[in-house]
Amino acid sequence: MDLDKEVYDGLNKQITHELEAWYTYLSLSAYFESKTLLGAAFWMRKQAEEEMGHAMKIFDYIHQRGAKAELGALPKPASSFPSVVAAFEAALAHEQKNTAHIYALLSLAESKSDEATVSFLKWFVDEQVEEEDSARKNLDLAKMCGDSAAALLQLDALLAKRKEGD
Ligand code: FEO
Question: Domains in the chain and their CATH numbers?
């Protein structure tokens, strides 16, 4: 393997972080299903699929570098939330945590002069900007709904329109 051991370990850990994100969004999807907010449930399910894609991107990269991916254990995700706003807050908090993981991994790759991994991780840096932005907008809109069921249903209808690649 031509990967530095610390970078290799960091990449494996990042697979687990992305799968944790997959699990978190799947749990959020289940929460919204249980509230009959099916648009929000759909949005979270689509996001879960994206997170699986992120994990697989790293999985493939490790193999392209001549090493073998090692999968870690996933913690149980939160499955109940005190409010709809709290559920959207949890999504944003998870993205912010993942951004910190990506930055730490990027710094490690830079410190090891692993230019290939630095280049590979730039995609994730850009992706995190988009994902935090989406999560923040969802949260802002959920807060705007306040106690209005009509507004919440409008937000739900908007989230149901999420397209491939959004
Ligand atoms: Fe793959 Fe939402 O971070």
Answer: 5-71+79-159 (1.20.1260.10)
Interior angle at CA 152, CA 53 and CA 41, nearest 5: 25
Task: Please classify residue 63 by burial: count the beta carbons closer than 10 Å to its beta carbon, then call 0-12 exposed, 13-18 middle and 19+ buried.
Answer: exposed
pLDDT digits (tens, 9 = 90+) for 43-53: 999 999 999 99
Backbone angles phi, psi at 163, to 5 degrees: -105, 165
Pocket of ligand 1 (CB under 6 A): 18, 21, 51, 54, 95, 98, 131
* Nearest-angstrom CA–CA distance, 105 and 121: 8
Q: Is there a contact between 49 and 71 (Cβ–Cβ < 8 Å)?
A: no
Q: Which numbered atom of ligand 1 lies nearest the CA of 50? A: 1
Q: The pTM is what?
A: 0.94
Which long-range CB contacts under 8 A does 123-127 form with residues at least 24 apart? Answer: 123/57, 124/54, 127/54
141-162: per-residue pLDDT in tens? 999 999 899 999 999 999 999 8
Question: Residues 147, 46: contact at Cβ < 8 Å?
Answer: no
